[in-house]
Amino acid sequence: MFGKTRFPHHRRPQQVRRTLPLALAAILAGICAAPSAKAASNDNNVEWNGLFHDQGPLFDNHVEPTASQSVTLTFRTFKGDVTGVNIKYYDSADSQFHVVAMHWASNDPTGVFDYWQGTIPASGSEKYYRFQVTDGTATAWYNAAGITSSEPSSGDFFIVPGFTTPSWMKNGVMYQIFPDRFYNGNTGNDVSNGQYTYSGCATEKHAWGSSVYANVSGCNTAVFFGGDLAGVDQKLGYIKNTLGANIIYLNPIFLSPSNHKYDTEDYMTVDPAFGSNSTLQTLSADIHSTSNGPKGYLILDGVFNHTGDTHKWFDRYNGWTSITGAYESQSSPYYGYYTFQSWPNTYSAFFGFSSMPKLDYGASGSAVRNAIYGSSTSVVKTYLKPPYSIDGWRLDAAQYLDAGGGNGSDAVNHQIMAELRSAVKSVNANADILGEFWGNAGPWTDNGTEWDGAMNYDGFTQPVSEWITGQDYSGNSASIPVSQFDSWLHGTRANYPTNVQQVMSNFLSSHDITRFGNRAGGDIWKTYLALFFQMTYVGTPTIYYGDEYGMQGGADPDNRRTFDWTVGTSTNSAVALAHKLIAIRNAYPALRTGSFMTLLTDDTHKLYAYGRFDASNRIAVALNNDSTSHSITVPVWQLSMANGSTVTELISGTQYTVQNGAVTLTVNGHYGAILAQ
Predict the structure, then answer these.
(1) Quick check: is 649 catalytic?
(2) Domains of the chain and CATH, by start
């Protein structure tokens, strides 16, 4: 099988975050303690609030090792507090645990902490490790899930030799566009009223900014506004410069009768309402160009679990005169591309929608596998190669790809995903594979053989929404305190290797859920706060078009309103803040690939502080989720900021001096501060 199912005693629980609160509460109590609590000695008591390790550059010399590179790990304790530290790692090659004794290496610059080091030998096998920390008769265990007094059975750190995720994804900011609703760059390709009818619904052309709901009940997918690829191209200056994003993810653009295009009619043809294949080539070249801003990257939506019923392989309505589709004849060359229970009207479909018949991937080497990704002329490879040269695929409904009409998420699905990864990387080793999964995507990411990352509903979108707006991403009441928010984040980070964490897509909204602005009740200050967190957290910040100015919208299709270009300007306060935060993120690698450390959680005043740091910079982020301003004392001694040193708040430019191991400042309600040195 795949993942750690081979080692059931070691497998991570699906919802690690729910198992952590007691351990994390103990950690946080120590982290938030006053500097005087730092006194340490060999007294048969391990001081938990001095312990730290993650796979940031100060603590792991090879986060993405080759099979020939050993991995030297660094572990932090209070100075003089412990008598020994061991690395205990599980090696999948021999299914055994191994122990490496760490040695004292150095002190931190402030002399508060000891650094211990040990090396795990090089090999090509996947490994998982934890730390055993001893002070005489006392022992503490430390792994990605937290600190415990007894040895954990899950939540270890990963070492996956030979697995790399794209550096441009780690270091970029993504902008997601629903093409019909972003900008109309060519009115000549607009869909007109009654241009065609599909599933009993005639097309409706609505005026920009008007209702997304159809005039005819049940026909919302037939509503068009005229947004297109030329419009995206014409607004690259806004995306790249006014905002500062450099990765563009487009919802489906291929021929389809609907406005959402998730019911593909032909993978090899750009929908005429969006332009042409030549338009796509021009857009891709312009995104990659540096003449209009920083070099950009393009990710397309790959809808490979199902086609539309108008696809030439299926051809339910006899639209393809030169081809006999599976619905038309059991003798069709494409009959085996689908799974019929009773031909022609009963067949496997995505969530039972008859307009989206499910592809049957069959066995390895099947015609469907070759058509989608296996052959040199496959869909996946065609668009990765010139003249399109896209930079990655977002895989829609990726868990469901299967054979025989199955529901996916099984051995066949993992085989398909491994083959797809090989196909993608054979064309462009630096291309990104972004899977859609709404829970713990570890089964597809943790071995380095399938996806690079996933859409982070579980580890970002949901907890951020519940903490800031008091609603889940569907708009239901669901409020959590900051301590639970931090625990949730910690647990979901532990689900993934660090290089996967760094390319997870962190978005406030998507085309499938209510808008963040809607959940925030139209309070733009909550968008400000969310932007602070989004641009300073681990992962790839992903802005669903309009979220940068607090666009509102309910459930689908209301979450797909047209972009308001009177608001999308540098004079808008939220857009200006997003631009500044993105510039700060771009200026400090610590905010992209540095360590993450919780510094403070205050449920009473709704305050949160955390550190991002590497060898060059120490950064503390302070967030206030209350409606009023609060003074917050941030324990920056945890980041080895020395007393008397100066830190600069990057939004205001105000400078502060570290006193008694802390920086005290006032943060406005639903706002943040970024302290850097």
Answers:
(1) no
(2) 3-159 (2.60.40.10), 306-358 (3.90.400), 456-587 (3.20.20.80), 591-676 (2.60.40.1180)
